[in-house]
Amino acid sequence: MSLWQRHRRTLAVIMLVAFPLLMMSSRAGAGVGDSPSFPSRLGLSAMGWAQTGFAAPLLAVSGWFDSLFSDQDDVDLEQAKAEISRLREEKSRLIGVLQENERLRKLVGFKARRPELELVPGRVIARDTTPYFRVLTLKVSTTVALAPRMPVISADGVVGQVHRVFADFVEVILVSDPRHRVDAITQRTRAQAVVEGLGHERDYLAKLAYLSERDEVREGDLVVTSGMGGVFPPELVLGTVASVEKSERGLFQEATITPAVDASRLDEVFIVVGAK
Fold first, then answer.
1. With contact defined as beta carbons under 8 Å apart, do 243 and 140 qualify?
2. Predicted structure pTM score
3. What's the CA gap between 76 and 73, in Å, rounded?
């Protein structure tokens, strides 16, 4: 084994200590423009050689570390993005579950309040986009025979009536459809009228027709089914009076009502197939 190999660690330490001392001695007392002494020239040469020899490996190591940490930062960033995406998806799914649970609780609560009604559940699968006719399509699964004119309701009130039945699908005309008519009363004064759909292009409004001019009706009054005619059970909520106007003929007044059920947001409904 050579002398260098046996004592390389010791020599390396001596060099690391000696170089700074040589540099300090080379600069001590030297003025601007003074010629360096022999020890100074020796130290500067040695230091230059050391810096040149060590510069490339140090730069290489530094570059490797930079690359390593840069790659790690990229990996961490991608992982963070993936985690954020997963959490957003999980939040969206959780919100959907909570909303569905709330709807089901309302439906169960309604069935508990009206135990005399025989109900068949249906799920909304389509909404007709015809400007004047308001129609929903339901998917049902039942052995009970369904027929036109059967009431369709939700936990919030009356949705409409069965229009057509084909296989496991049911078409429903809404309260706002001009073909829909149902006997009604105002809950506050028991004023009798008929709810008819207005068929507006941009809303789901209906009206109280054949409302006597003597009847007291005002905005905010609740309108419910009267039970007359034998189609709709009594006291199902139809909507709320939005405005009242006198008829030009003076015999009747008309009131616009906002349906209790927002048909644009419906998911589940009930078809009333009978009453106990």
1. no
2. 0.62
3. 5
Q: How far is CA 119 from CA 103, 144, 266, in A?
A: 16, 10, 17
Which are the contacts of 265, defined by CB distance < 8 A and separation ≥ 6?
none
pLDDT score for 61: 54
Q: 104 pLDDT exceeds 80?
A: no
Over residues 198-226, the pLDDT tens digits come to 988 778 899 998 888 888 899 999 999 99
Q: Pairing between strand 222-225 and 268-275?
A: unpaired
Q: Where are the alpha helices (DSSP H) in 114-156?
A: none
User: Is the distance from CB of 197 to CB of 238 less than 8 angstroms?
Assistant: no
* Element containing residue 138 per DSSP (H, E): strand 135-140
Which H or E run includes 197?
strand 192-197
What are the CA-CA distances from residue 174 to residues 16, 36, 65, 103, 229 (Å)? Answer: 92, 103, 70, 20, 18
Helices (H), the chain: 3-27, 38-113
pLDDT digits (tens, 9 = 90+) for 24-47: 555 544 445 555 555 555 555 555
Backbone angles phi, psi at 83, to 5 degrees: -70, -40
| pLDDT one-digit tens code per residue, 144-184 | 899 999 999 998 999 999 999 998 999 999 999 999 999 99
> Distance between CA 45 and CA 26 in Å, rounded?
11
HSE-up (13 A, CA, CB side) for residue 53: 6
pLDDT of residue 208: 92
CA atoms lying within 13 Å on the CB side of residue 9: 1
